[in-house]
Amino acid sequence: MGPAPAGTQLRGAAGEPEVMEPSLEGTGKEEKKKSSKKHTMAGSPMEGLLQPVKLSRAELYKDPTSEELNHLRETESLFHSSLLRLQVEELLKEVKLSEKKKERIDAFLREINQRIMRVPSTPETELVDQSWLPVGVQVPLHQVPYTVKGCFRFLPPAQVTIVGSYLLGTCIRPDINVDVALTMPREILQDKDGLNQRYFRKRALYLAHLAHHLAQDPLFGSVRFSYTNGCHLKPSLLLRPHGKNERLVTVRLHPCPPPDFFRPCRLLPSKNNVRSAWYRGQSPPGDGSAEPPTPHYNTWVLQDTALESHVQLLSTVLGSALGLKDGVALLKVWLRQRELDKGLGGFSGFLVSMLVAFLVSTRKIHTTMSGYQVLRSVLQFLATTDLTSNGISLCLSSDPSLPALADFHRAFPVVFLDISGRLNLCADVTASTYHQVQHEARLSMVLLDSKADDGFQLLLMTPKPMIRAFDHVLHLCPLSRLQAACHRLKLWPELQDHGGDYVSAALGPLTTLLEQGLGSRLHLLAHSRPPISEWGIGQDPPKHRDSGTLTLGLLLRPEGLTSVLELGPEADQPEAADFRQFWGSRSELRRFQDGAIREAVVWEAVSMSQKRLIPYQVVTHLLALHADIPDTCIHYMGGLLDALIQGLKEASSTKGRMMVSQGGELVMVPNVEAILEDFAILGEGLVQAVEARSERWTV
Questions:
Q1: Are residues 532 and 634 in the same domain?
Q2: Burial letters for 53-68: b for 16+ Cβ neighbours within 10 Å, e otherwise?
Q3: What would the pLDDT profile of 150-198 be if each residue is shown by its tens digit?
Q4: Which of 90, 261, 414, 570 is most buried, most CB within 10 Å of its CB?
């Protein structure tokens, strides 16, 4: 080998540090000094350790470079402080996917594509004839009613497309999911497949045939079914790699129709696509009355038709704007810490991404913003914008055939339209969930504006489950009682629209009922539905009652909370009949000191602790009266401190005071040590009580 070229890095013998050789110029003295210095370093007892860098005075006080000035300027304009910037950057490093893992995931996706295309076709059969399905695989859908028109055959997908956050670079750890859209060939579908769940039946059969063949492949360590965003009419197939990479990624397969297969005018929120004669087994009414609209059913069909258009929009908006992608990642962390993105109707990361796209289109967010600025802008928008009354739209078309926002507000509690102007992205989001998102956004903005030292920790690093966020929490269990509630509340159109999902059908009316009953006592009511777990391909799909427990959280107002009187209208007013119907036997006529005779409800409460639990009486009475849910199905968690406070008050009546001598007189003063000891006992008792009840009712 010849001599090393000038300016390259050479490596000495074992144990010697690396030395950078400059150009081969200089005097012999300089070479001797270097050689002497090199041997001195090699023989040093601190060999192998990092040494402090010695800088000259000129180097210490030299002017900052243009890159350093830009960094300081960005920190000053885009962040509150250098510490916040460091915290945000470190968090993003932790949640983002590394390049090495991306390469392994890409290789796995290529293998999946090849295997899907090799799945054999099947002959055409009637939808009700499912004898061709092999043993060991079940259709991942409740087929009620079972009889339905149409034919089905399996053909390999016409196109396999990666959609979702993985393609956009906004997915976050620890759970990496890759959504893959399988475009079913037109030969499988028929013109009227939008009616009476025919499309959803074919979609489920398509997945069942795929699951049987892919489960036999050694590439996959796990092949299971799951519901897409908790919707029981839209199962998806989950694929995980075999061996040590099983936790690397979960690939979710979503069958979808070809573009422009369904006529959009047939899927508007005012249209009906589930016939009462088919679903209820009743003949159509002879009075010529119209069928009830099925807005949620229509939306679920439209969602499958818009998968590719949505990812194209997000790809165009986010593009190479790293700040927007960082902002989406931070917003997903914010939602996850507050459990706002879980289950059916959650405020998902997809909705946040589309909201960022909307704010970019309205120029409230710029592509040059940092991730922290995007986070602030979105939280500010959520805190100040009520989508339950003023919906927004990504559609820029002025086509008169498109429905108006008012049409969507009549069908859905929360409205956010996509670029087509026909699909409500927030169709499954309830008003209670959106108000909870608004409430958390307001709290987060107050925290950010305060510039507190622990603001980052509280905003993005601290979990905030429902039990920490609300004053009172109640669990409804078993969920099968909600089926009786639907019958009591006569929610037949809602059941027809939700495909028999009585939990979703009853949720909105129940929350509205409790909000009306609690009135001025209530600041916020929210609900939480745990996500339905995945299941094996040989198992029947979970039923609606298997989704665990429905949890409601009550955030109460101190003003009016302890009032024992619900004052109604005067007896001769027309509203008096509605008041009596709402409160039932609790309502009674009373004469007041001013001589007025009014309808009123009086709650039984004497002590202050009993008055603080009046919401429990309100909730149990209204649910039993209007929804046929007895108090035995309601586990109410509230007032847990009262017993502990009362016990400590009795035990510490004298313990908390002590006699001291001041100026020759005995004076009673607080015993601080005893009070602190009582607080410690109080905290331990509260934690034990909450943990005991939480463990008992955790599903």
A1: yes
A2: eeeeeeeeeeeeeeee
A3: 999 999 999 999 998 998 989 988 889 999 999 999 999 998 999 999 9
A4: 414
